[in-house]
Amino acid sequence: MKFNLDYYxxxxxxxxxxxxxxxxxxxxxxxxxxxxxxxxKDIRWPVFYYLTGLRKNIINWYPMKKxxxxxxxxxxxxxxxxxxxxxxxxVVAVELSKRRATAIANRNRAQENLExxxxxxxxxxxxxxxxxxxxxGVLEYxxxxxxxxxxxxxxxxxxxxxxxxxxxxxxxxxxxxGMKYFAGAPxxxxxxxxxxxxxxxNKQTAQTFxxxxxxxxxxxxxxxxxxxxxxxxxxxxxxxxxxxxxLPDESSIKDYRFYYYEGSxxxxxxxxxxxxxIKNGVFDIFANSFFxxxxxxxxxxxxxxxxxxxxxxxxxxxxxxxx
Length: 323
Fold this sequence. Notes:
Blueprint: E1 2-4, H1 19-29, H2 35-39, H3 45-51, E2 69-73, H4 81-87, E3 90-95, H5 98-107, E4 114-118, E5 130-136, H6 142-145, H7 151-160, E6 163-174, H8 179-182, H9 211-220, E7 225-232, E8 240-243, E9 258-259, H10 270-279, H11 283-286, E10 289-295, E11 321-322
Parallel strand pairs: 1-4, 2-3, 2-5, 3-4, 5-6
Antiparallel strand pairs: 6-10, 7-8, 7-10, 9-11
C-alpha cells in the first residue's frame, strides 16, 4: 500500500466531528473482520455506518476483471476500498481528508495493490487512465468542490478524462423521487422532509436526481450508455439489488428490510406502496437509490442478480430497520 500526500494542502475541509477520531481509533485497534465486536458495545449511527460490512454490498456483486484498474473518488473511511482491492488489479483511492484517508490505510494495511491519494481531485495529476471510476455517494456533492455554473456536468466532464475509451463510471446515489422521501424520511443531505421532491431551491448545494434527470446529465458529457440497478433499502446499507431485467415482485417485496434514521416521521407503509409501483410497472422511478453503469461504449455486462438480491444483515443492524 502506498500513502500519497503529494497533493495534500495541510488541512481537512470537512468532517463529521470528533466522532471521526473515535472511528479512526477503532480502525487502528481492530481489523475489518473484527468490527462486529465494536457494535456489541458501540452502536451509534456514525460508528455503525462507517464500519459495517453492509456497505460492501453496493459493489461486492459487481463483476470486474481481475487485472482491472479502479479510481475510487471520495473513498471516505474506506467502506468499500478493501472490496475493490479484492476485485481489481489496482486501486487508487482519492480522499480529501487526511484523517479519513488514514482510516482507509488502517483498514487496508495488507493490500499491495492500493494507493491512497490525499487531496482535492481537481488538483491531482494522473499518469494513467482507468477501467472503472467509482462515485459512491459523491456526485451529489459536486457543487461543494466544483465552483462553476454547471458543477455536476463540469465535475463529470472532468473525471471522464480519466476513463479509458471503453471504461465505466459507477455511480451510487439517492433518487430524489425515492419512496422513502414520499413516506416522510428527511432528505439525506439537508435533513428536511420533501425537500428534493419539491425541487432544490439552492442549485449550488448538494442534490440528487430522478432517473431521467440522471440519464440526461450523463448523456451531456458523452456517457450515453447507461444501465440502472436498484439497491434496497438504499445504496448505503443495501440488502438486495435489482435491475430492469430482475425486478421485485409483489410477494418478494414483503421480505425486504427498510431502515429510517431515529426520529423520522414516516407517513405510510413503504412496502405496501412499493407493491403498488410493482403492479403498475413504475418501481424503477420510485426506487430509493440507483447504482448506475455509465459509458460512452455499449455496456455488455451480464449479471444474474437472482443469486445476489438478498444479502446478509448483521444482527446488530436490526435496531435500525423496520421489519
